[in-house]
Amino acid sequence: MTAAAAACCLLAGCGSGAAASSGSPGTAASSGSPGTAASSVTATASGSGTGSAAVCADVSAVRRSVSQLGQAAVSKDGAGELKARLSQVTSDLDRLATDASGRWAPQVDALKSALGKAQAAVSGLAGGSGSLPGVVTAIAGVATAAVALLSAAAASCPG
Asked: How many domains does the chain have?
């Protein structure tokens, strides 16, 4: 399903050149309408202030792993890949939460919640009790929560 990929491609607009061009989100982006959120994240990326090098590296890692999640195929056969990519986002987010010491806590918590829902949806799909639309919706929730976190972090870590 390209809807999940389009949702996660919202993040392509908030990455640095290297992170934003690391995949091939053009196909997915053309199948959805993520422009508004991507534009708002890009606009906030020019904020002032700086974060620590470790925190900014963590922000970049979250941005990259969520973008890579958006490139995964949403299908029952692709459940293993989705689980692996969700695990990577979770790992990167956990590192950011630790290094940021409570900074952006509401956004981090919202992304953790969205990741939990997405992991449950993918597990349900793999086990036969879930649905593709449910996975797409859950991954779109991850993208939305990630955009909120990256927008909040953009002033300190402009990407």
From this structure: 1
Residue 59 lies inside a defined structural domain of this protein: yes
Structure tokens at 29: 């982006």
- Is there a domain that residue 158 lies in? no
Mark 20-42 as b/e (b = at least 16 C-beta within 10 Å).
bebbebeebbeebebeebbebbb
Largest CA distance in the chain: 48
- Contact between 21 and 52 under an 8 Å Cβ cutoff? The reply is no
Q: Taking a C-beta distance cutoff of 8 angstroms, is the pair 76, 31 a contact?
A: no
The tens digit of pLDDT for each residue in 1-55 reads 444 444 444 444 443 333 333 333 333 333 333 333 333 333 333 333 567 999 9
Among candidates 33, 36, 41, which has minimal Cα distance to 11? Answer: 41
pTM comes to 0.73
Please name the amino acid found at residue 93.
L
How far is residue 50's CA from residue 158's CA, in Å, rounded to a whole number? 8
Helices (H) and strands (E) in the chain, counts: 8, 0
- What b/e string do you get for 121-140 counting C-beta neighbours within 10 Å, with b at 16 or more? bbbbbbeeebeeebbbbbbb
Range of the domain at 61: 2-153
Whole-number Å distance between alpha carbons of 114 and 120: 10
